[in-house]
Amino acid sequence: MLEEVEPLGLNRDIMERYADIRRSLRPPYGPGLIGDIDTLIAATAMEHGLTLVTADSDFHRIPDLDVLLVPRKM
Asked: What pTM value is reported for the model?
C-alpha cells in the first residue's frame, strides 16, 4: 500500500498554517497545544483540503480541521 501513497512535501503555506494553529491552541487563547508533529500533520491536511483520519482525539482541538475519528483497536 505504501508504494501507492505519494508523500506531501512541506512548503511555506503549510509552515504558516502550522504557526497559526500553534498560536490558536496556546493558552490563554486556546485549549492547549498538541504535539509538534501532530500540528504539522494537521496543517498539511488543511492546506491540501484533506480529511484527517485518526484515532487521536487531540486533533478535535484544532479549529476548522476536518477530522474523522476512528476507534482504537484493542
From this structure: 0.87
**4-19: per-residue pLDDT in tens?**
888 899 999 999 999 9
**Range 22-35 average pLDDT:** 90
Q: Select the CATH number that applies to the domain covering 11-69 from these four: 3.30.420.40, 3.40.50.1010, 3.20.20.140, 3.40.50.10540.
A: 3.40.50.1010
| Residue 54 per-residue DSSP state | E
For residue 53, which phi and psi values (nearest 5 degrees)? -100, 120
Beta-carbon contacts of 16 under 8 Å, excluding residues fewer than 6 positions away, are none
Task: Give the Cα separation of 31 and 12 in Å (integer).
Answer: 26
Residue indicated by cell numbers 505504501: 2
Query: 65 to each of 34, 68, 71, how far by Cα in Å?
Result: 14, 10, 18
